[in-house]
Amino acid sequence: MEIWWKFRYIDKRNSSALRRWVYMKKILIIGTGGTIASGNMGEGLTPVLTTEQLLNFVPSVREICHVECVQPFSMDSTNICPEHWVQLAILLREQYDRYDGFVICHGTDTMAYTAAALSYLVQGAQKPVILTGAQKPISFDSTDSKINLTDAVICASSDTLHGVMVVFNGKVIQGTRACKTNSKSYEAFSSINYPYLGVLRDGRLFPYIENGYLDKPVFYDRLDSRVALLKLIPGTRCSLVSYMLEQNDALIIEAFGVGGLPDYAGNDLLSVIEDGVRNGKTVVLTTQVQNEGSDIRVYQVGYRAYQCPRILEAFDMTTEAVCAKLMWILARTDDMKSIQKLFYTPVSNDIFDYS
Hints:
By secondary structure, the protein is an alpha/beta fold. Helices cover 27% and strands 26% of the residues. The protein has two domains: 216 residues, Rossmann fold; 118 residues, Rossmann fold (3-Layer(aba) Sandwich). The chain has an eight-stranded mixed beta sheet with strand order 6-3-7-9-10-11-14-15, with helices on both faces. A four-stranded parallel beta sheet has the order 17-18-21-22, with helices on both faces. A two-stranded antiparallel ribbon has the order 1-2.
């Protein structure tokens, strides 16, 4: 990897002060589109700016580090698919040895899914892989884009942060714990059931937790996209559950409360689920409630499912992490015992260690 240095004043307030050569970390900024790069083309916002053009709005970034850019694709993040996650993982693997850190500019709508997916596809990275974006385009007079992008570069240049993270509105969030919790305000993302890794104030990073890493990262390049999500509503029909199991390799069911699974007269959801797992399908029960996780043993409506050892429980995992983890696991094995072991093995702090 090339070494970059910059001649800088030790004290900017004193022009006659001593100067020294300062090591500049080499950061790769990866553009994927999203609101941060969008303009109004007459039919709503759509990505139009390249990553190089984004940097023209924040020239101070080049005082923090040496920056290079790449643009693998440009789209609204609503259109992001698992194949794009694999594309990003391959790019990170190919460029990993050339850079000190990475910033991925991404749309906010599916950023948490991408952060979770990359946490499984790029495991144990010693270098920071930062996802960021904005709620308003960078060309707007009032926008969160400039501060978010600057903060992301600061974090990508950090010696204390490792692996995949979301940096947004002054918060540093573990990639497997991020969730978009506000649709319009600048406080778009929260860390679910896990502390923030750090905060940024006035261009300074204050790390709270140093997340772990390996001496050498492990990269993966396959996902099984045949994973579906069903959010229960009162009166959900067995036929819908049966169809979704038939069409997919895994089904995540967002149940009520701590994991209650309804048993309507003549409409036994659990029996359909048990038939599915006997036929080799993977089923995970989680909760629709955002915080504090599931515990299907609490009520009778969940305890029956608890007694079926082949039904998995998400506990404190986010739905985004469950989805991405299943795609990663099922691309590696179809053995039920191996699936269970991998699912409950913590990766990037995605689940409390229940072993």
